[in-house]
Amino acid sequence: MRPGDTIGVISPAGPLNKTDLQSGIEILESSGFKVSLAHHVYSRLDYLAGEDGDRLRDLHDIFRDSHIKAVFCARGGYGTTRLIDRIEYDLIRQNPKIIVGYSDITALLMAIQKRTGLITFHGPVVRELASKHQGNYDNLIGLLSSDKPLKLSLAKGDALIPGKATGSLMGGNLSLICHLIGTPFLPSLDGCILFVEERGEALYRIDRMLTHLKLSGQLSGLSGLVAGKFEECGDPSTINRLLLDVLSSLDIPIATGLEVGHGRRNLTLPLGLPTELDTDRMILSIREAAVVNSP
Fold this sequence. Notes:
Layout: E1 6-10, H1 18-30, E2 34-37, H2 52-64, E3 68-73, H3 89-94, E4 98-101, H4 106-116, E5 120-122, H5 134-144, E6 150-153, E7 159-161, E8 164-173, H6 174-180, E9 193-199, H7 203-215, E10 224-231, H8 236-247, E11 254-255, E12 269-271, E13 274-278, E14 283-286
Helix pairs in contact: 6-7, 7-8
């Protein structure tokens, strides 16, 4: 991405007001980007950002628009799983664009990655660009503007099970990953380094989700696991013990300290790229550039 490029903004999940996006749009425009809002970005239907057909149409229209370089999601909430079985994935494959979001957007990112092979980006939504840590925005734009690999420090975390692992990076919101099990929209996790994050869930529910993932067989071929933020989910040391209790039998490196998710820090990660987890140095290294130069 370069200054002057156009960023399209869509609301594929929950609703929001114009004031929710104002500061995020301003920070994008102050960086030299043009912003194009999807037609139904401010629509509202109870807990959804409008009718399913309208949200789906916005997604398709924004990928058809050759002037738009990247697609940023306005917010999370709920709603992307209602769309993923109706998306025209051939359209997206033929018109590749950067797409960014997290939380409920996890389902959209994973579905696109699975059905098109394109790299998708787990990162901040527009509503939070100006309201959380400035480093989130700097990291996002830096990653999308660079042809260099990425290294992220895990120094604030712990090596629950030490070791090194390599594999394709995959992950996102824990509950959304669980809800994709049994659907054709969950990428294979075999050989992957998986990262997970969550917000506002009781410990027993996190236990149930992790156990469900394990019992489903989705984790049997995993290469490594990194925990992001478990915001408002209880004491971090209790989360660490739970991760060990449920997942230690996988016999893979497990680390914490990844600054992604619903906390103040939410760094951007590219889904689908070769990655190395090194608990000796407590570093997660993305081995390839996430974007390439294009006209």
